[in-house]
C-alpha cells in the first residue's frame, strides 16, 4: 500500500502532481511519501503488538535525515552499520538508546563513538570483534552492551548478494562457537550481555526461512539461559520482501503473528531491523526522457537517471516498474530504459513492454525508496539527485540536488 496514484491521468505523490515537482526541482529526483512511510511503520508496529518490541529501521535502506526524523518521531529505533549512520540518526533526533550496531567490520573509533552515545547494543560478529569491543570499553571505562549476531545457516531464498545467513556467508558467529563467546562476554567486567540476534538476508518472500532462523536462535537461547547467561532481547534482523513486480510476499501481519507467537513466550524483547518493507514502496525516482533511439532491432529510451542514481537493476538484475507520469492511450513496444552512463550495464529496465514515450516526457521508476538514493554515487561525475519528502500537499526538499561544486569537493590540484 502506497500513496503514489493517478488522478485524471496524472501521476501524483500524495496530493502533489509529480509533473509539478519535476518543474520545480528538476530531474532525476527521488520523491518519498511521508504518509506511506508512516503507514508502513504503523502496520508493522501493530503486527508486532503481541510482543514487547522495538522496530530498528535499517538506516542503510534510506538514510535521508528527513526520513530518519519522521521515523524517529514515530518511535522507531535504528539499525546502523557505521559511525556515519549513527551520526545521521543523532542529527535526525533519533534516540541512541534504541540503536543497534551491526556489521562485520566495525573500526575501533566506530565502536568508541557507539559506546560514548550509549547505544542499545553492539551486534558482535566474531571473537576478534568481541575482544576489540572489550578493549575499547575498558579504555573508555564503560561496560559495552553486546549481543552476538549468530549465523543460523538458513537459506533465505533470495539473490545471492543479499543472502547473509548461509554457511558460506561472511556474517555472524557460528552457532556452535556462540556459547563459548557468551561465557567469555559474561565473565568480562567491560562487557554486558544484552541479547542475541540474526539476520539471514533481504528481499525474503517466504515466512518459512525466517521462522526456521528464529527457532534455531531460540534453541540457543534455552541453552544459554540454562548456563545462567541472561538475554534480554532477541533481534530477528530485517529482510521482509516487497512486491516489485507482482511477487507474493510475506505480509507484515503474517510475519508479526508468526514471530511474536514464537518469541513472546520466552519473555524476550523483540527487535526487528526492517529497511525495505518500510521505505521501498514509499519512494519513486522521477526521471525525464532525453531521447529515444534504435540500434538494430533494439529500442532504447534514454532517460536522465542512470545506474549511479539507481544501482539495483545493474547490480542485482532487479526489476522496477516504470510508468509514464502523464497517462495516455498509446501503442506499447518492447524497450530498454537506459541512462547516460557509459556502460552497457547502465539500464533501469531491459526488454520491457512500455507505452511509446516521447522526448521530454516524465517517467516514474517505482519502489525506489529503499536502496535507491542510499546506493547512489557520482560515477561519470554525475551530481547526485535531489530528494523530496511529500506530506499531503506539502513538499520538503530533503536533499538539494548536488551541483558541480559538490563533484570536486575535497579534491586538490598539485601545486604548479
Ligand atoms: N539488518 C541487517 C543486519 C542488514 O544487513 C540489513 C540489510 C537489514 C537489517 C535490512 O534488510 P531489509 O529489511 O531492508 O531487507 N542493496 C540491496 C539490499 C542489501 C541489504 C543489506 N542488509 C538491495 O538493493 O536489494
How many individual domains?
Answer: 2
Helix content: 25-40%
The poorly predicted ranges are none
Determine the N-to-C terminus distance.
59 Å
The counted number of beta strands is 21
- CATH topology name of the largest domain, in short, is TIM Barrel
Task: List the main descriptive attributes of the protein structure presented here.
alpha/beta, Lyase, Ornithine Decarboxylase, Chain A, domain 1, TIM Barrel, 2 domains, 9-stranded mixed β-sheet, 21 strands, globular, binds ligand LLP
Description of the structure:
The protein is 28% helix and 26% strand. It has helices at residues 18-25, 34-47, 65-74, 83-91, 108-116, 127-140, 178-186, 207-226, 252-263, 276-279, 312-316, 404-407; strands at residues 4-7, 10-13, 16-17, 29-33, 53-58, 77-80, 99-101, 121-124, 144-151, 173-174, 191-197, 233-235, 269-272, 283-295, 298-303, 322-324, 332-338, 347-355, 362-365, 386-391, 394-399. The chain is globular. The mean pLDDT is 95. The chain has two domains: 4-32 and 280-407, Lyase, Ornithine Decarboxylase, Chain A, domain 1 (Beta Barrel), CATH 2.40.37; 34-276, TIM Barrel. α9 links the parallel β12 (233-235) and β13 (269-272). The structure holds ligand LLP.
Amino acid at each position: 500500500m502506497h500513496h503514489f496514484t493517478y488522478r485524471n491521468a496524472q501521476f501524483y505523490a500524495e496530493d502533489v502532481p509529480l509533473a509539478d515537482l519535476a518543474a520545480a526541482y528538476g530531474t532525476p529526483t527521488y520523491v518519498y511519501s511521508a504518509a506511506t512511510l508512516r503507514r508502513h511503520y504503523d502496520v508493522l508496529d501493530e503486527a508486532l503488538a503481541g510482543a514487547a518490541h522495538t522496530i530498528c529501521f535499517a538506516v542503510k535502506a534510506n538514510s535521508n535525515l528527513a526520513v530518519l526524523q519522521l521515523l524517529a518521531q514515530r518511535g522507531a529505533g535504528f539499525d546502523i552499520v557505521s559511525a556515519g549512520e549513527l551520526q545521521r540518526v543523532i542529527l535526525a533526533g533519533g534516540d541512541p538508546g534504541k540503536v543497534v550496531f551491526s556489521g562485520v567490520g566495525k573500526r575501533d573509533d566506530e565502536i568508541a563513538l557507539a559506546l560514548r552515545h550509549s547505544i542499545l547494543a553492539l551486534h558482535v560478529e566474531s571473537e576478534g570483534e568481541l575482544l576489540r569491543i572489550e578493549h575499547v570499553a575498558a579504555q573508555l571505562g564503560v561496560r559495552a552492551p553486546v549481543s552476538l549476531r549468530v549465523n543460523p545457516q538458513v537459506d533465505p531464498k533470495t539473490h545471492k548478494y543479499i543472502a547473509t545467513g548461509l554457511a558460506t556467508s561472511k556474517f555472524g558467529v557460528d552457532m556452535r562457537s556462540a556459547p563459548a563467546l557468551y561465557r567469555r562476554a559474561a565473565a568480562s567486567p567491560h562487557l554486558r550481555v544484552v541479547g542475541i540476534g540474526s539476520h539471514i538476508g533481504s528481499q525474503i518472500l517466504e515466512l518459512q526461512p525466517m521462522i526456521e532462523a528464529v527457532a534455531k536462535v531460540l534453541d540457543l537461547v534455552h541453552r544459554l539461559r540454562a548456563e545462567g547467561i541472561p538475554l534480554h532481547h532477541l533481534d530477528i534482523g530485517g529482510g521482509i520482501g516487497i512486491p516489485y513486480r507482482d511477487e507474493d510476499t510475506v505480509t507484515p501481519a503474517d510475519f508479526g503473528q508468526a514471530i511474536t507467537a514464537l518469541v513472546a513466550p520466552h519473555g524476550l524483547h523483540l527487535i526487528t531491523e526492517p529497511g525495505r518493507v518500510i521505505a521501498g514502496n514509499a519512494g519513486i525516482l522521477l526521471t525525464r526522457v532525453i531521447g529515444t533511439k534504435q540500434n538494430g532491432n533494439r529500442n532504447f529510451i534514454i532517460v536522465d537517471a542512470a545506474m549511479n542514481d539507481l544501482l539495483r537493476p545493474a547490480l542485482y538484475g532487479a526489476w522496477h516498474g516504470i510508468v509514464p507520469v502523464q497517462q495516455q492511450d498509446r501503442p506499447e513496444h518492447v524497450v530498454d530504459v537506459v541512462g547516460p552512463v557509459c556502460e552497457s550495464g547502465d539500464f533501469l529496465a531491459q526488454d520491457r513492454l512500455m507505452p511509446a514515450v516521447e522526448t521530454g516526457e516524465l517517467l516514474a521508476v517505482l519502489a525506489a525508496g529503499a536502496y535507491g538514493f542510499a546506493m547512489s554515487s557520482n560515477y561519470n561525475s554525475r551530481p547526485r539527485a535531489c530528494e523530496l519528502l511529500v506530506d499531503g500537499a506539502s513538499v520538503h526538499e530533503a536533499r538539494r540536488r548536488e551541483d558541480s561544486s559538490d563533484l570536486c569537493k575535497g579534491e586538490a590540484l598539485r601545486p604548479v
